[in-house]
Amino acid sequence: MQQGDTISAIVTPPGEGGVGIVRLSGDEAFAIADVMFRARSGKKIEDIRSSSFSYGHILDEKGKIIDEALMLVMRTPNSYTKEDVIELQCHGGAVVLRSVLERTFALGARPAQRGEFTKRAFLNGRIDLSEAQAVMEIVGAKTKASLRMASGRLSGKFSGKIVELRHKILDMIAHLEATIDFPEDEIDEVVLDDINLRLVIIKENIDTLLKTAHAGRILKDGLRTAIIGKPNVGKSSLLNALLLEERAIVTDIPGTTRDSIEAFVNVGGIPLVLTDTAGIREAKDEVEKIGIERARACAEEAALVLIVFDGSVPMTAEDEEILRIAKERDSVFLINKSDQPQKYEESYEKTIRANVTEAVVLQISAKTGEGIEALSHLIEEKVYGGELKGDEASFVNDVREADILRRASEYLANAMQTIENGMSADFVSIDLRSAWEALGEITGETVGEDIIDEIFSKFCLGK
Amino acid sequence: MKVFVAGEYDVVVIGAGHAGVEAGLAAARIGCRTLLATLSMDNIALMPCNPSIGGPAKGHLVREVDALGGEMGLNIDKTAIQSRLLNTGKGPAVHALRAQADKKRYQFTMKETCEKQENLDVKQILIEDVQVEAGKVCGVVVETGEIYRCRAVILATGTYLRGRIIIGETTYDAGPNGQRAAMKLTDSLNRLGIKLMRFKTGTPARVDARSLDYDEMEIQPGDDEAAAFSFMTDEPTRSVAPCWLSYTNEETHKVIRENIHRAPMANGVIKGVGPRYCPSIETKIVRFPDKERHQLFIEPEGIHTQEMYVQGMSTSLPVDVQIAFLHTIPGLRHCRVMRAGYAIEYDCIDPTQLSPTLELKNIRGFFSAGQSNGTSGYEEAAAQGLIAGINAAMQVKGGEPLVLKRSEAYIGVLIDDLVTKGTNEPYRMMTSRAEYRLILRQDNADLRLTEYGRRVGLVSDKRYVRYQKKKEEIETALKTLNNTMLTPSSETNEKLTAAGMGEIRTVTSLFDLLRRPEADYKKVCGLFGLPEISAEAAKQVDITVTYEGYIRRQQDQIERMEKLETKLLPPDMDYGKVPSLREEAREKLASVRPRSVGQAGRISGVSPADVSVLLVWLEKERRMKQEEGAENGIS
């Protein structure tokens, strides 16, 4: 939205090759690079020729080396976006690359949205009309993706926390604004010392969230993985096989696993957050229906979906419905019960491949553990091979959130500084509003009228 | 009845309240032959509710109206009986001037101004129909048969449009204070396909000043130091009449609670939507049952009247209940009610049908301003009246319309909110609605807007010269402050110490010196022989220096937003053809038809991603046109 600010992103596909590139574009690109990159030659960017590489090191805030890198300087208008552009070619692999990106955010860049470099290139007149349509599609796709992300997040604990913090800030804003707009009404005076104390606590909360929302969260918090399949195909058995303990109740009565079960499991060093859900089938009662809806929701939210079929019985309409859910997700298809006579495995594979090109199909027995090791390897490959789109999306999401949290934290610090400087309440409200609006970008709600509503719901005002 | 063409005007203004008079005066002053139609010559610029002008955000609007060449500021300066500067303990951006008006003097002074205005005819007529031909306004029809042909109409009907007064069980069709209502004009608007809403507002009782117990109330005098709204008023009002403060109590609330079933808002008689910031006393007691007391102000309605306005006690309860609860309040125990409080319902248009020029998007030459746009308040009305008057005149004269940005004026915020978001209650201006509050101060309204007033022809030479002088003083002073460096010599530091300021240790510009809390321009100017400037200019310099960091941050925000404000969307844009827009956004955009991408982004239901889609689409269209142009050039 705000063309003119500086954006940055990792522009190489995750996990591919040894070199990863972080690109910065915008007015501040050079200033940011000058702080974080130390050229071996000792030169600053203004002394470096355009379109030339410099060898050097990327430093963290304490001056410690994060990675060695080549820096490519492109001056406006001779760059892809026609803005000042810096490309940092790093060598340290995915985790280091993310630290480099984080560093650009800390120095004032904001995460580029999907297609944003291209969008800028287009808006600045760099690329031609024939490419415009593609740009529209990229940008448009983001609408849907971000909506799905927003709804996924909203149900989570994280966003619950944000909503709560946001409301606490709104509370203070409403109080400040009410005293300003209704100076003669009987409203308790705003005590700035009190506001300051509350800000300290809110800021601490945000800073804590910031730590957990840090890049690389997947490796810390796990890869969200859903196990779906119609009832009684062995989803719970698979979960147990991965967990190596009887956590879920496994029975032969269809629909036993009524509630989702969540568990952490370490597969090849990758923590998976496994969700085992009720099977997808025509719900006969309410409880079951909730389970099915949850299964769909789980698949939506998951970065990786494990789909289980029973190879000992023919494929049914329900299985096909599950296939449809799987189609748009990063999925692994598992044909279970290989310990029993597999009469239908071929027809399963055929149908799956007919529906999903390049489908990954594995035969397993959750009961005997056959094929489980292969599955582990497959997941490892997917994560380290950077194949997981969901993975990338959630990473982008995380940096976006981290960026917002960082901004919110800064605004709160500003507000506290304003109080310390002895400024009056209306100056404090400037930063409170900014913090409140920033957090709204996470929850997807930034409507000014909220403040007014809050004022009137809280105070009895007016002549 | 014989219908006949009685005259021809450029602009006809329907209604002569606070919106109507500004609209009429502005159009006439710009040079349009203008008709100002009122239901009663005796009620021009009537203040049917509170006897005051200004306050937070509202005072800002008055200053802005004044800077653009409107009348409200000048008129209240001539007729105020006291003034107070509110919010002085808060920052300069929210300082707010409010003045008590002598209501009748306010009206008659405004009436005189209107009657003496060249190009302006004031007539007592009731307009029943607006004539439109081929999507364009062409005349108005009066109930007594006159037709006035015209090129533009400004609807400024206040609460008169199908007005209905409610006092307890008594209801009747009327405008405020029991005047005639305009009953048939609504049908005309319906025929033109204009979407209407029904709003409600209310007013408290007026009591006899002689029947009050003043020793039971707290006196609320005005400020000793008088202040003016208009940048052209040199001798501001002196306070002559105080207000009085009292409180309701448990007994008051008991009377109201026991009679709540007789309240029109409770028994369903009132259907219109009332404002939250102007609740009736019965609403306050129902919504905030734990509040032990509510404060009220007793305010004089003028010098030559005994009527006192009971602010805070707006009500539509039956008169016996009104008398009963007033008699429970200290100071009012023996009060005699002169006019009962009442609620009034009225028709207004849904303002999302308007463009930011305040013209209806579907009918050329049809403008609307004030309460008929769903707002509330004299100041909000005046601001819109002025803009509608200017834009109607600009249209007639073929000039550029005036649309103020949110970053330029409260007027810009007000109109943008109305036409972009609409409103579901009478809209009141509040400082919290303005995102760039620090820039939109009441003290710099002249610096922000005088040029615009000059461009449209409402700013006189005298006003313009005064503005230019002030502006130049400020600029010179700031430049001098920046360019004058102090060395930390003992001589300098002695000077500083003597003036009660801390010493300096390094070379310091006067600008930086002025940042210190103990410094201001006047002090520094005397010490270091800087140019003497007016107190008003010095104040601007002080604010600029002291709040520089905050002001710059708001300016950065504005700059970022500005890029989207200048991306204009074609009025006939077909949103159905823009791929990738979400359905909700598509519908909202098609209905509001925003002028710019910036405005589009403020519509609820339009996401930042939709805004990106619009930007890309616009650029694509622009290039396609360019290529077509190039091809045509070749052939």
Side by side, the strands of the main sheet of chain B go 16-17-18-19-15-20
CATH topology of the largest domain in chain A: Rossmann fold
Work out the number of β strands of chain B. Answer: 24
Question: CATH first level of the largest domain in chain B: which class?
Answer: Alpha Beta
How much is the average pLDDT of chain B?
Answer: 92
User: Which architecture of the largest domain in chain A per CATH?
Assistant: 3-Layer(aba) Sandwich
Task: Give the SSE map.
The complex is a heterodimer of chains A (463) and B (635).
Chain A lengths: L6 E4 L9 E6 L3 H8 E3 L12 E8 L5 E10 L10 E6 L2 H14 L3 E2 L4 H8 L5 H26 L2 H25 L10 H21 L4 H5 L1 E6 L6 H9 L17 E7 L2 E7 L9 H16 L2 E7 L6 H11 L3 E6 L8 H11 L4 E4 L8 H13 L4 H32 L4 H19 L5 H10 L5
Parallel strand pairs in A: 1-7, 8-10, 8-11, 11-12, 12-13
Antiparallel strand pairs in A: 1-2, 2-6, 3-4, 4-5, 5-6, 9-10
Helix pairs in contact in A: 3-4, 5-6, 5-14, 5-15, 6-13, 13-14
Chain B lengths: L3 E5 L2 E4 L3 H13 L3 E5 L13 E3 L3 H10 L4 H8 E7 L9 E6 L1 H14 L3 E5 L2 E7 L2 E7 L3 E4 L2 E4 L8 E4 L2 E4 L11 H7 L4 E8 L2 E3 L9 E3 L22 E5 L2 H9 L5 H4 L13 H7 L7 E6 L6 E5 L7 H8 L10 E3 L2 E8 L16 E3 L9 H20 L12 H12 L23 H12 L4 H23 L1 E2 L3 H9 L9 E2 H6 L5 H8 L6 H12 L1 H18 L17 H10 L4 H6 L5 H27 L1
Parallel strand pairs in B: 1-10, 2-3, 2-11, 3-7, 11-22
Antiparallel strand pairs in B: 4-6, 5-6, 8-9, 9-10, 12-13, 12-21, 14-21, 15-19, 15-20, 16-17, 17-18, 18-19, 23-24
Helix pairs in contact in B: 1-10, 2-10, 2-12, 3-4, 6-9, 12-13, 13-17
